[in-house]
Design goal:
Layout (H helix, E strand, L loop, with lengths): L2 E4 L3 E4 L4 E2 H8 L18 E6 L4 E3 H9 L6 E2 L4 E2 L3 E5 L25 E3 L1
Parallel strand pairs: 1-8
Antiparallel strand pairs: 1-2, 3-7, 4-6, 4-8, 5-9
């Protein structure tokens, strides 16, 4: 099982292949935002990798980050926990002014990913 280290929160073993957005909420207990329900549209599930950033990215994630001019971040809804990683959560419900974190994300990455090298 991969180890997920969340800066300022702790270290957790998560099921292989679990979506990072779900691992942050369910395993680490982080109030991670995901306003669009984890579909790579809103960019509210932003995280920064401290270590272990995947060397691939979904086309959906790449395109939305590029369209919004965002660099140095990733979308937790588009990352699978398939190796050890350390992240910094930068988009949380607390302090956001939103009533909730967003629609529950599906178990599988949505839209179905087309992977490209980062």
């Amino acid at each position: 099982m991969p180890k997920l280290s969340v800066e300022g929160v702790g270290q957790f073993e998560v099921p292989l292949g679990k979506r990072l957005v779900l691992a942050l909420e369910q395993d680490a207990g982080v109030d991670q935002l995901h306003a669009c329900g984890g579909n790579a549209r809103c960019t509210t599930c932003r995280i920064e990798f401290v270590a272990g950033e995947p060397d691939r990215i979904s086309v959906a994630e790449r395109d939305v980050l590029h369209a919004r001019g965002l660099a140095g971040i990733r979308l937790s809804c588009q990352v699978a926990c398939d190796h050890d990683m350390e992240v910094r959560v930068i988009s949380r419900l607390a302090g956001s002014g939103r009533k909730d974190a967003g629609h529950p994300p599906a178990t599988e990455i949505q839209p179905p990913p087309e992977w490209v090298s980062k």
